[in-house]
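Sample A.
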Amino acid sequence: MSAFVFVPRRVTSAAFAGVLLVGGLAACGGGAKSDSAVAAPPRATPAAAVAKAAKNSEEITSLRYRISGTVPAKGSLKAEASMNTQPLTMSMKMTPAAAQGGDGQLEIRFVDEVMYVGGSGVRSQKLNGKSWLSAAPATWGRGGVDNQSYGVLPSQLQVNPTAQSTLLTGSKDLRLIGTETVDGTTTTHYKGTVNSGGLIGGRLDQFTQLEVSDPLTMDLWIDGDERTKQFRMRAEHDDMLASTGDGPLDLTVTFLDINQPVTIKAPSAKDTAPLADNSQGS
């Protein structure tokens, strides 16, 4: 059974970030080969192929995925994560990038609208002998306004990757690049640019949370099951949208296991320390 550990709503992103070691975030990522060995030849226009992959992405109920690249304000990062959509839960492991001067590993979980952060990347004096810190209310993978990770995750990683992968459906200049192998799987590679003015509803919200300026350049690799295998997003940082930092976005997300059992549990209550109001202290 999930443990419910709540902290005051007054806890701020800056307060939670203060309990973590200084530095950019990164992590080791493993790879798992897909069962899809051969991608079917293109049977449709690029727009139709991308639309089909987007529809299939919307039907994903669980996912294990790998992230690598750079994000504004945080620099380079690598991570490996798992998620479920019903109920919406997520677990991610990251370690600070050496270039950012950080040390240690972070593990972040979102369960029952509570965020848990553990690992050697958390300042030990804040743990009070426990292994995890918690903060609530915390939300991952919903609309950009609703997401809340108290500054622990870059905004670009607060978005459900299955939704991010559908952004290329808004491109007006889609083109076929060719056949390429991704993580042992033969895929068809498409590329295009996306402008915020051409997006509506949830996809515009996903674009806004990336905190980048137009246009977004996106590559999409589709496997033989007409599913997204990998996507890459590149754009310049938008100072009008982002609160801090600069630098470009260049992020690659690789889908590993799709619709396979994923178990994400809250840590034991006895091993969890709620983030207190005095977290802003050193």
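Sample B.
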Amino acid sequence: MKKLFLLFIAFLLVSSSFAQHFFDTDFNTRKKYIILCDPTVHRIKTIQYLTNANLLSVKKNKVKFVGVYYKGQKYDFSETQKYIEENHLDNFFLHEIDGELTKENIYTENDITDELRKVFSNSIGVIFFGGPDIQPELYCEDNSLSVVTDPGRHLYECSFIFHLLGGSQNESFQPFLTERPDYTVTGFCLGMQTMNVGTGGTLIQDIPAEIYNTNTPEETVGIGRANLHRNYWQLIEEDPLFMGINLHTIQFTDNTFWGKDVRVAKNSTPRIYSSHHQAVENLGKGLSVTCLSPDGKIIEGIKHNTYPHVFAVQFHPEVSALYEDLGLKIFLPKDEPKSYHDILSKSDIRFHESYWNYISESFKKTKKPKRH
């Protein structure tokens, strides 16, 4: 009996390890695979919502999702594996990447280059999600106002972006997308910042301090709600109804991304979900600005000048509360409580739906990798 028990435990360990190295298995090459970086349980639930609501429109029988993460990240991805197994999700898989990553080797061929190529060669695109601050040393600055909680994640994701797109840090490196320029790369919030840093750009470490010269929450709220990229009132007064985010408008630049690529009215100023204190400063190699904050001081969207399906936004179009009533919140102390969905207009919702339609079409237009 003891021998059988040990064999069972060994089987479980092998199964778990096997399941987290998806692209090393005998996977179905007839399917299309979209890569999810930082595939926490929350991320999996987000993609479930987006696909079930048909915002991210994919054919579930043909398109699968693979969460690709770095072993050196803080999150315990066995929780994700457990969630996938307990909910019998047959369209989500995991793949772990391991290897030594340092600030000196992430912008060149390194220990994970072969694994990244394997992931790229078997997928049609990748989504980079939001999260904590990138360590400024990755864009050659000292840390003055950043709070870095998961350095391993940023080493991996910045290196992934660099391998995909190249960057000014190493002009001789040939990025993966030179082989498949229609590959889709997109991201939200930190995802956009990672795209910028990974291609050689820099970040504003704290918007209130560096752009508006404010040093306290009281000073910061004085710059006006339209210029706040999260809610600082929650640091001044106590109220469980305070939203931690802001819903502010954006404006489009002359870039044709909004208007021609994403079918929205060029003169519109849609309201979006904003939750960040850092932002793009100097642009990375090959990137252009697509939209700005109301005062024009903060970059809200970027796209690549060469690769048609590489684009990202500073805001969060993936949040389910934008599309349905999920709770009442206030921004200012005297506000009437409303849901995020109620605060947005119908045209704001249509803007987000149009953006998701464009993301979906980008994935559909990306050709399946050729099998040799």
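B remarks: Residues 166 and 172 are 9 Å apart (CA to CA). The longest strand covers residues 63-70.
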